[in-house]
Amino acid sequence: MRSFLVPPVDTVTYGPGAFDQIAAQVERVGGSRVMVVLSGSLAGGPVEAALHERLGATVVGVYSRTRQHVPRTSVLEAVQVARENRADCVLSLGGGTPIDCGKAVALALGTGIAEPADFERYRVRFTYPSTYEVPPIEGDIVPHVAVPTTLSGGEHTGLCGVTDDATRSKDAYTSPKLQPRAVVLDPWVTAGTPDWLWAASGMRAVDHAVEGILSARHMPMTDALGAGALRLLTDNLAASAADPHNEQARTDCLLGTWLSIFGLTNVGVGLSHGIGHQLAAEFDMIHGITSAVMLPLVMEFTREQTLPRLRLVAEAMGVDTRDLTDRSAADAAIAAVRDLVTRLGVPDRISAADGTPDALEKIADHVMGDAAVAACPREVTREDVLALLRAAW
């Protein structure tokens, strides 16, 4: 028996001019005192100025110092600003880091989290292969409006990652209550995103789509949405990275990211994500790079278990598979992902990050406790993970 979950977002507004509706979206979710969690790169720039112009005195606080991978201490700094200003709504504007921080701020405001150790009460605990402990989040959570400037897709889920400063393990927190109530997708706010970051975050969206299709729990609805996402992303990522003012290409990538996320929320993703979460937290890599590094290797690792699924991936990425065997189609799918990484110029080795091979053992331990691994269609051992990490180095 399978069921399909539609994340409980009230509205997704998209296309050129969508940002002009931001005040209406805040009002619609009941916000009157807005706490803004902003990417540091946007602070003091035209996008922040446009936000203040549209929201005026409704903005009661701005936090723009969230560190990458959302350390608990960054969340608590933002929470203090929100509490001091009696915020009743969170608005995140930027990439996956401020969006996840916005969810974590809403979580903390609703549950009384005040110290780093308080996060322990709500983090997801996973024991391989399939044992989950998901603590309930009681009480009311303030509404959240999300405006992304990258393609990480976090605006479409009730899941966030927060890093334990002490262990550098990235922990998951999840509840439908953490889902942003309104999402605004406007290509204009993305124009200042560096081309390398836009391209890398696009690989994260590709990873969502591919691993959703290859998931051990795959289903027709997520297959169709994932394939649609891959078509939009394959056709538009390079053009949108080369020209940040190509509004149609940027809008299509934002829409592809939206389609890609339903795999994560319904059938789970897999080993590329599980490894990527922990790689990113340990070496301070962005998730788009971890996807570019790990996704082709994980596709090869699960190749024999996913041959018909890989044909669907190849077709969605523009490969004519009519005369190909399943194995040839699988090879073509993996090659198509690698070709896209190359065309986008995204790094594809772990050694590009500022880290040391000595940390790979610890990362492998953390990966085996990452809930994303449960959706991998092949049995996974710690030794398998370590071998993949070493191959990716």
What's the gist of this structure?
A hairpin with a 6-residue loop joins strand 8 and strand 9 (170-174).
Report on this model:
The chain is an alpha/beta fold and 393 residues long. The protein has two domains: 11-190, Rossmann fold (3-Layer(aba) Sandwich); 195-392, Up-down Bundle (Dehydroquinate synthase-like, alpha domain). Helices cover 48% and strands 11% of the residues. It has a six-stranded parallel β-sheet with strand order 1-10-7-4-2-3, sandwiched between helices. β8 (159-163) and β9 form a beta hairpin. The chain is globular, with a radius of gyration of 20 Å. Pfam families: ADH_Fe_C, Fe-ADH. InterPro entries: ADH_Fe/GldA (IPR001670), ADH_Fe_C (IPR056798), ADH_Fe_CS (IPR018211), Alcohol_dehydrogenase_Fe (IPR039697). Keywords: NAD, Oxidoreductase. This is Iron-containing alcohol dehydrogenase.
Percent strand: 5-15%
Helix content: 40-55%
Number of strands: 10
Mean pLDDT, rounded to whole units?
Answer: 96
Keywords: NAD, Oxidoreductase
Domain Alcohol dehydrogenase iron-type/glycerol dehydrogenase GldA: 12-187
Family: Belongs to the iron-containing alcohol dehydrogenase family.
Organism: Pseudonocardia yuanmonensis
Summarize this structure as a short list of keywords or feature phrases:
two-stranded antiparallel ribbon, alpha/beta, Dehydroquinate synthase-like, alpha domain, 393 residues, Rossmann fold, six-stranded parallel sheet, 2 domains
